[in-house]
Amino acid sequence: MAILVHGQLIVSSKAIFTGVDNSDPNASGPATFSDPRNHATAAASIIELVSKQTDFKPKEQGLDATAWEYQAFFQKLTKFPGFEQLYNNLHYLELTGKLDQLKEQISAYYVPLSGKADAAASAFVEQIPESTKPGSSGTWTLVLITIHGEEDNTISVDLSSVDVKIVVKDDGSVSLKRKQTAKLYQTVVQIDSKYLIANADKLARFTPTEDVETFKEDLTTPSSNDRNKLLKDWLFGSNHACEFESLQSKYVHRRLYPSLQL
């Protein structure tokens, strides 16, 4: 993970689930932890709890999430006593400034919990927008959080990130800095089912139940289009997008023709 010394540091996050989720959609309380079939939900609930405790909330914060919040989230989550660490790797990526080459480098070193590394590499690269607010140049941390479930209810959590230098021009256009060394971090932990079962009552007392879909939504940074939709829904409700477009049109009209009333 990047540590801010000089320059802007921005965090973008993507949360995904792979494999099999055998969780009972109605499970809550101690059953979330005592029944191994619900341990995908248990993992999501633990991640959601730590997210709130450390104020790392990508859905709410957007690109205003900071490295400090992500580092606090990572440190606290990986110290959860119900996780067993499988591996912790750091790879250096020599980049030319091309997005396709960044994707190739990630694919060469990333170890997927299932499927091919290309899918994870795409999930990283797709977090780099075509444009964003000027003044956002610097090191960006691209985060990928994966919960993976096996048929036998074995649940793993992959916390990976790429630190890469981004250049944002005055017009907001985004590109990679040429000839740089990026860093790929990958930490994978596995749920200790015996620990969750033995401590089910205590864990349930302090951990609200959250399902995998909620985890995926809350731990993902909205794209610019998603943020526009969130604003529409907040202003008018999800069924009144046309009213938002009308408001935008009137605002632009008034800026261009202030003497006219609509």
Fill in the keyword field for this structure:
elongated, disordered N terminus, six-stranded mixed sheet, 262 residues, 11 helices, 2 domains, Delta-endotoxin CytB
Summarize the helices and strands and which ones pair or pack.
Elements: E1 8-19, H1 31-34, H2 39-54, H3 58-61, H4 67-78, E2 83-95, H5 99-109, H6 117-125, E3 138-149, E4 155-168, E5 174-176, E6 180-191, H7 193-198, H8 200-206, H9 212-218, H10 224-236, H11 241-256
Helix pairs in contact: 2-4, 2-9, 5-6
Model description:
The chain is α+β, with helices and mostly antiparallel strands. The chain folds into two domains: 8-222, Delta-endotoxin CytB (3-Layer(aba) Sandwich); 223-262. It has helices at residues 31-34, 39-54, 58-61, 67-78, 99-109, 117-125, 193-198, 200-206, 212-218, 224-236, 241-256; strands at residues 8-19, 83-95, 138-149, 155-168, 174-176, 180-191. Strands 1, 2, 3, 4, 5 and 6 form a six-stranded mixed β-sheet that branches. A hairpin with a 5-residue loop joins strand 4 (155-168) and strand 5 (174-176). Helix 2 crosses helix 4 (67-78), helix 2 packs parallel to helix 9 and helix 5 (99-109) crosses helix 6 (117-125). It is elongated, with a radius of gyration of 21 Å. The N and C termini lie far apart (51 Å).
